[in-house]
Amino acid sequence: MAKLKMSKKSTKVDMTAMCDMAFLLLSFFIMTATAKVPEALPVETPASTVQTKLPDENLGTLSIAKGKVFYGVTGRDIRSETLKRMGEKYNVAFSEADLTKFALIDGFGVDIRQMKQLIDMKNEDRMKEGTQPGIPYDSINNQLTDWIQISRNVTKDLHTKDLDIAIKGDAKEEYPTVKKVLDILQKQSKNNFFLVTGLRSDDF
Amino acid sequence: MAELNTGDGGGKKGGGKVRSKKSNPGVDLTAMVDLAFLLITFFILTTTLSKPQSMNLALPDELKDETPPETPAWRTLTIVLGSGDKVIWYHGGLDNPIDGPIVATYGKSGIRDLIINKKKYVDDRNKREGADLEKSGITVILKPSEKSNYKNFVDILDEMAITGIKKYATVDITPEDIKSLETNSIY
C-alpha cells in the first residue's frame, strides 16, 4: 500500500517554484520597462537598415514635423540649468519651482516667453496637439540655436561631455525644414549627429 | 506549498474514497506558468525593441574649407532627389554627362543596382590605372531638392550604407538641376 501511494504522488510536477520565479521575472520586467512617454509632437520616423543605438545620456533630441521643431535633452540637471541660462539670455525670470518642474518635461516647442505658461499647464493639456507652436528658428528670432548652444555648454560644464544630437524627423517632412535645422547645427560646428529611424531589411 | 486541502468529506467514508481525493491533491499551475512566461517574453521583446534605431550622419565642417576638393568627372555620380519618390541621376557633370541624366526610383529595383554598377566601373578603372581604391573611389553627390521629403533623404543615405559607398556629400541644389527635374516633371 505504501509503495503504491508514493508512485501516485510523483506523477505531478510541483510548479510552485517555477510559477514564483516566472512572476518574479514578470514583475521585474514590468517595473523596468519604460512606459511610452506621450510626445508633444507626434513624429513618424522613416526606416533604415542601419542599426546604431542611440546613447542614453547627454542626448539632445530635435523633433521635426509639420514645419515645427521641438527640442528636449536628457538629464534633469541639464534641463534646469539650460532653462536658467536661457532665461538669463532672454531676460525671462524663472523661479526655482519653475526650474524643477521644467526638469520633468521631456520635450517642448514654445517661444521662451511662453515657457512660463507651458510650465504652469497641466501635463495632459501640455501634450495636446496644437498647444505648442514649435521653437522659433528663423533668422530673425533664432531661439533654437541658443537652446542647442546653451544645452551643449551646460553638458560640457556639468558632465564634461559634448552633447550628442539626435534628429527625429517625420517621414513626410519637407527637406527645406530639415535643411534649416542641419544648417543651424553645422553653424555651431556640430557636424556629427544621429538620425532617428525605424528598422527595416534592405529588401525594399 | 501550493497543495490545497479540500476539507469536505473527511473521514466519513472508506479507503476507496480517500484514494480518489489523492488523485487531485494540488492546484494545476501549468496554465498560470504558461501565461507568466508569455508575458515575460512580451516584456523582454518590447523593452529591447522600444529603443529607437538611428543612423549616423556626418557633415563637413562648414567653416573650414569653402571649396570642395576637385574630383574627376568620371568618378562622380550625382543623385538629385525630386518629388514623388523619384530621383534623377547622372554620371559626370550635368553639362557633359558620361551617362544619364535618367529618372529612377528608390530601393532594390531602382537606384541600388545603378550605384553598385557605377562603383564597380570606377573601381575597375582605378585598378587598370593602378590608383588607390580607397582614396580615389567613387564619390556620390546627393542633391535633395525642396520638393523631396525627409524620408527620401534617409532612404538615399541608407542606400549609401547598403551599397558601401564611403564617400558621399550632401550639396545644395543648383538651378540647372532644378531645370532637369522640371523637364522630367518631378519637381
Describe this structure in words.
The complex is a heterodimer of chains A (204) and B (187). With 204 residues, chain A is of the alpha/beta class. Chain A has one domain. Chain A has 8 helices and 6 strands; from the N terminus they run H-H-E-E-E-E-H-H-H-H-H-E-H-E. Chain A has helices spanning 2-9, 16-32, 76-90, 96-102, 115-120, 123-126, 143-159, 175-187; strands at 47-48, 52-53, 59-65, 68-73, 164-169, 192-199. Chain A has a 5-stranded mixed β-sheet. In chain A, helix 8 links the parallel strand 5 (164-169) and strand 6. In chain A, helix 3 crosses helix 4 (96-102) and helix 3 crosses helix 7. The longest helix of chain A has 17 residues, at 16-32. The termini of chain A are far apart. Chain B has 187 residues and is of the alpha/beta class. Chain B folds into 2 domains: 1-51; 73-183, 2-Layer Sandwich (Nucleotidyltransferase, domain 5), CATH 3.30.420. Chain B has 5 helices and 6 strands. In chain B, a hairpin with a 4-residue loop joins strand 3 and strand 4 (97-105). The radius of gyration of chain B is 33 Å and the shape is elongated. Chain B starts with 14 loop residues before the first helix and ends with a helix. In chain B, 26% of the residues are buried. At the A-B interface, helix 1, helix 2, strand 1, strand 2 and strand 5 of A face helix 2, strand 1 and helix 4 of B.
| Average predicted confidence as pLDDT of chain B | 77
SS-based class of chain B: alpha/beta
First CA to last CA of chain B: what distance? Answer: 73 Å
Poorly predicted regions of chain B are 7-16
